[in-house]
Amino acid sequence: MILLTRLNGSELGLNPDLIERVESTPDTVIALIDGTKYVVSEPTTEVIARVIEFRARVIAAAQRHNDRIIADPAPLHLVTDRHGVAAPGTQEY
């Protein structure tokens, strides 16, 4: 979510994945993909900067998560039934 300010001063949390366009008319109008429009006090350039920052944080968090997974992989092993027999078509390497 990005935090923006409505013209009345109240805060608005907006999902940037739902933004279709941002316009200056001269007020900043944010149109969502479902047709909903919000008028905010931040200039268009600030809204765009916040969306870019949000996406960068998402990518950075995903990379940190991916690094943890790669750094500590779970060991693989052959799965057998209760008698110790491997499933047909499987083999140990």
How would you characterize the overall build of this protein?
The protein has a three-stranded antiparallel beta sheet with strand order 3-4-5, with helices on one face. The chain has one domain (2-71): Beta Barrel (OB fold (Dihydrolipoamide Acetyltransferase, E2P)), CATH 2.40.50. The protein is elongated and about 75 Å long. The chain has one helix and five strands, in the order βββββα. It is of the alpha+beta class. It is 30% helix and 25% strand.
Concise structural overview:
This protein is of the alpha+beta class. The strands form two sheets. It has a three-stranded antiparallel β-sheet, with helices on one face. The protein has a two-stranded antiparallel sheet with strand order 1-2. It has one domain (2-71): OB fold (Dihydrolipoamide Acetyltransferase, E2P).
Question: What's the structural blueprint in terms of helices and strands?
Answer:
Layout (H helix, E strand, L loop, with lengths): L1 E4 L5 E4 L4 E6 L3 E5 L4 E4 L3 H28 L22
Antiparallel strand pairs: 1-2, 3-4, 4-5
Radius of gyration: 24 Å
Q: Segments where pLDDT lies below 50 for 5+ residues?
A: none
Q: State mean pLDDT (0 to 100 scale).
A: 88
- How far do the termini sit from each other? 46 Å
Helix proportion range: 25-40%
Taking the sheet with the most strands, its summary is: 3 strands, antiparallel
- CATH T-level topology: OB fold (Dihydrolipoamide Acetyltransferase, E2P)
What CATH first level would be assigned?
A: Mainly Beta
CATH architecture: Beta Barrel
Describe the structure using short key phrases.
single chain; 93 residues; alpha+beta; OB fold (Dihydrolipoamide Acetyltransferase, E2P); 3-stranded antiparallel β-sheet; 1 helix; 5 strands
